[in-house]
Design goal:
Belongs to the inward rectifier-type potassium channel (TC 1.A.2.1) family. KCNJ3 subfamily. It is a multi-pass membrane protein. It comes from Ardeotis kori. Pfam families: IRK, IRK_C. The protein is an alpha+beta fold. It folds into 2 domains: 123 residues, Orthogonal Bundle (Helix Hairpins); 162 residues, G protein-activated inward rectifier potassium channel 1 (Immunoglobulin-like). The protein is 27% helix and 26% strand. The strands form 4 sheets. Strands 1, 2, 3, 7 and 10 form a 5-stranded mixed sheet that branches. The longest helix is centred in the N-terminal third of the chain and has 30 residues. The protein is elongated, with a radius of gyration of 31 Å.
Length: 321
């Protein structure tokens, strides 16, 4: 069967685009900081460079304008004349003075004299504006670099889910794993079934979301993720898969969205990893191969077998049957 459109990709990206916002698009500007953090890296770097370049050129032009209006440019080399800013006699020198002031380099060759009140006011304005721009842009870049999205890439999900019997009950299972030695604190997993349905009143719900119980009542959804775990959903009378059989699976159309959340141990930030399984990725009558083995004083995880499954005898009937 050809691959159909997914609601959530295997890498966790949601295939949802917002359009026709109209006047509501102004909400993005009201939360400008979050908008910049959510942008892609290439746009962040472009805005970072453009903001500093424009600010530098504008402030350097203001220093050059003061020197031009006072006539300092024509008398800059006169030792008896007291200019607003010493040794500023053209735009490049005004630009260098601004950079020295903004970066607190202070080579000592260019400096403001006490006979230039407009220069003192501009210096105070430059200091305040520079602090605001630095705090905004550098804070934005720091938050973007410290986002735990990359940590989610070291959390693995099995490529397929399986349906087989466990403890005499028909179960839907998939596997999760953590590639890093650092743990996920308070790791919790949730599952959503995305499926179109029609209500008894005739209302059509194209992407109806239904919760899949993966141990919420027993605490099995709280994971100690130090080794790969097999997450189990028991198909009982409360499960939306209660009438699902091996034969009806071939004609069904649904998507199971898996959400794994936890706190990164090293940074204390909340991390979320997502994936999904369509009906084509649910294997009836399969079980996952073991990946744990006992070595000399420790347990070894063989991730080469992480996605591997094997067939087991499983009744082709639904849990209801």
């Amino acid at each position: 069967r050809r691959e159909r459109q997914r609601f959530v990709d295997k890498n966790g990206r949601c295939n949802v685009q917002h359009g026709n916002l109209g006047g509501e698009s102004s909400r993005y500007l009201s939360d400008l900081f979050t908008t910049l953090v959510d942008l892609k890296w290439r746009w962040n770097l472009l805005i970072f460079l453009l903001t500093y370049t424009v600010a530098w050129l504008v402030m350097a032009s203001m220093w050059w304008g003061i020197a031009y209006l006072r006539g300092d440019l024509h008398q800059a080399h006169d030792d008896t004349y007291s200019p607003c800013v010493a040794n500023v006699y053209n735009f490049p020198s005004a630009f260098l003075f601004f950079i020295e002031t903004e970066a607190t380099i202070g080579y000592g060759h260019r400096y403001i004299t006490e006979r230039c009140p407009e220069g003192i006011v501009l210096f105070l304005f430059q200091s305040l504006l520079g602090s605001i721009v630095d705090a905004f842009l550098i804070g934005c870049m720091f938050i973007k670099m410290s986002q735990p999205k990359k940590r989610a890439e070291t959390l693995m999900f099995s490529r397929a889910a399986v349906v087989s019997q466990r403890d005499g009950k028909l179960c839907l299972m998939f596997r999760v794993g953590n590639l890093r030695n650092s743990h996920m604190v308070s790791a919790q997993i949730r599952c959503k079934l995305i499926k179109s349905r029609q209500t008894p009143e005739g209302e059509f719900l194209p992407l109806d979301q239904c919760e899949l119980d993966v141990g919420f009542g027993t605490g099995a959804d709280q994971l100690f993720l130090v080794s790969p775990l097999t997450i189990c959903h028991e198909i009982n009378s409360k499960s939306p898969f209660f009438c699902l059989s091996q034969r009806s699976l071939q004609s069904e159309q649904f998507e199971i969205v898996v959400i794994l959340e936890g706190i990164v141990e090293t940074t204390g930030m909340t991390c979320q990893a997502r994936t999904s399984y369509t009906e084509d990725e649910v294997l009836w009558g399969h079980r996952f191969l073991p990946v744990m083995s006992l070595e000399d004083g420790f347990f070894r995880v063989d991730y080469s077998q992480f996605h591997a499954t094997f067939e087991v005898p499983t009744p082709p009937y639904s849990a209801k049957e």
